[in-house]
Amino acid sequence: MPSLKDLKNRIASVKATQKITKAMKMVAAAKLRRAQEAAEAARPYSQRMSAVLANIAQAVGGDDSVPRLMTGTGKDDVHLLVVCTAERGLCGGFNSQIARFARDHARRLLAQGKTVKIYCVGKKGYDSLRREFASLIVGRTDLRDVKRVAFENADQIARTIMSMFDKGEFDVCTLFYSEFKSVISQVPTALQLIPAAADVSVANTATAAGATAVYEYEPDAGAILDDLIPRNISVQVFRALLENVAGEMGAKMSAMDSATRNAGEMINKLTLNYNRQRQAQITKELIEIISGAEAL
Amino acid sequence: MADNFNFELVSPERLLLSEKVSEVVIPATEGEMTVMANHAPTMTTIKPGIVTVKAASGKVSRYVVFGGFADILPTGCTLLAESAVPMEELNRETLQKRIDAARGDIAAATNDDHKFHLERHLAELTHLNGIVVPA
Questions:
Q1: pLDDT digits (tens, 9 = 90+) for A158-184
Q2: In this structure, what is the dihedral angle of CA atoms B30, B36, B37, B40, given to the nearest 10 degrees?
Q3: What residue intervals traverse the membrane (chain A) (predicted)?
C-alpha cells in the first residue's frame, strides 16, 4: 500500500504529464491545419498534371518514343519500395501502420522470389524496417531538419529514385505512404511510380470534358513526355509527403487527445484513493485517541 | 477589344493565379509566345523566364517561373510551373542559389547529352538573372 506522500507525488507527476500531452495536442492541431492547407493547395497541380499526362499518353500511345520511365524495363524482378514515414513518434499507430504495410508487401514479393530493395524516407520507418530487412535497405532520406516540406525535398528524392532507375538498379518502384482521409483515419497506401500506371479514369474524365482536342506539341510529344514524367514522379512524391505530414499530425492529435483523457482518468482514480486513505488515517487516529481515553 | 479567357498559374505548392485575362506571354522552350483567346490547342514546355499576364481589367502582372509546361486550349490556358513567384517577391539570393545548384549539377554530370541540357538551363538562368534583378 503506497503511503499518502507517494500518492501525492504520483498525482503531481500525472498532472504534469497531462499538461505536456495537452500542449502537444494543441501544437499538433495547429500544425495539422497548416499541413491540410498545404495538401489542399498542392492538389490542383497534381490533378492537372495527371490530366495532361493522360492526354499525352493517349496521343503518343504505342509509339516507340515513349520513355522507359513509363513503359518500365519489361521485367519485374527487382522491386524498389520507397517507404515514407514520419520523423517523430508519439503519433499512435501511424508509423507502424505504414511500416507493417510495406513489410507485408516486401514479404510477399520475397516469397515470389523477387529481389526487394527498400528506400526509407523518414527515420521511424527506417528504424522499424531495419530490424527485419537491414540488408535490403539501399538508402534513406532524413527530413528531420525540414520544417515545412517543400517541393525541392520531394524533387531530390525523386531524382535519387530516377538515377537508380537509369542505372538499372530496379524494375518496378512502389511508393508507400499514408493517405490522409480524415483527422482520425489515415490509410496506408501503395502507389506504383515506375512504370507509371496509366490512370484510365483521369483519361476518361478528360475525354468527357472534351479536352481531347488535337494538340500541337512544341517541341514534340515525345520530348514533352520526357520532360513530364520525371516531373510527375516528383509531384507524386511531393503529394505523398504532404499527405504524410497531414496524417502524422492528425494521428498525433488523436493520440495525444486520448493520452490527455487517460491521464485525467488516472488522476481521478488516484485522487479517490488518496482521499480514502487520508480518511482511513483520520479514523485510525480518532480510534487510537478514544480507546486511549477509555483505558484511563 | 480582344476576348478574355481563363488563365491559371499553378505551382506544386499552390495555385498562384486563376482569373480572366486577355493575353499572356509565355516563355516557351522554342521562343516566347503570346497566348490570346481561341488559341489552337497546344502543349509546350517552358524555360525559366517571365510570364506576363494582362488581366481582363487591363492590369499587367509579371511572374517569374522556373521551368514547367503549358497546356493551351481555345477556352483557357493552364501553366504548370515547377516553381513560380511574383516578380516583386523574387530576390537575388534565391536566383543565385539556383544558379549555383545548376553549376553543381553540371560539374556532376557525366553524360554529354545531360550536360548540354544543364548548360542550356544555366544559360537561361543567368540570362534571367541579368534581366530581372538590375545590378
A1: 888 888 888 888 888 999 999 888 888
A2: -20
A3: none
Domain identity same for B78 and B112: no
Count Cβ atoms below 10 Å from residue A256 Cβ, excluding itself: 23
Q: Which residues of A touch B45 (CB under 8 A)?
A: 218-219, 223-224, 227
A31 found inside a domain? yes
Query: Are B45 and B71 within one domain?
Result: yes
Q: Angle formed by the axes of helices B112-132 and B92-108, to 10°?
A: 160
The CATH number of whichever domain residue A66 belongs to comes to: 3.40.1380.10
Separation CA A212–CA A204 (nearest Å): 10
Q: How many CB pairs under 8 A join A and B?
A: 75
Judge if ipTM > 0.90. Answer: no
pLDDT in tens, B69-121: 888 888 888 898 888 888 777 777 777 777 777 777 777 777 777 777 777 77
- Same domain? For B30 and B66 the reply is yes
Q: Which domain holds residue B103?
A: 91-132
Say how many domains are in chain B.
Answer: 2
The residue of chain A with its CA nearest to that of B14 is: A41
According to DSSP, the residues that pair with A115 across neighbouring strands are: A78
Nearest to B69 among A44, A214, A224 (CB): A224
Q: Per the domain annotation, does A188 fall within a domain?
A: yes
- What is the count of structural domains for chain A? 1
Integer CA distances (angstroms), A57 to A52, A83, A200, in order = 8, 28, 10
Region A196-209: what's the mean pLDDT?
52
The DSSP bridge pattern shows strands A115-121 and A78-84 to be parallel
User: Which of B94, B47, B38, B103 has the alpha carbon at shortest distance from B70?
Assistant: B47
Q: What confidence tens digit (pLDDT) does each residue in A56-68 have?
A: 777 766 555 566 7
Does residue B71 sit in the same domain as residue B19?
A: yes
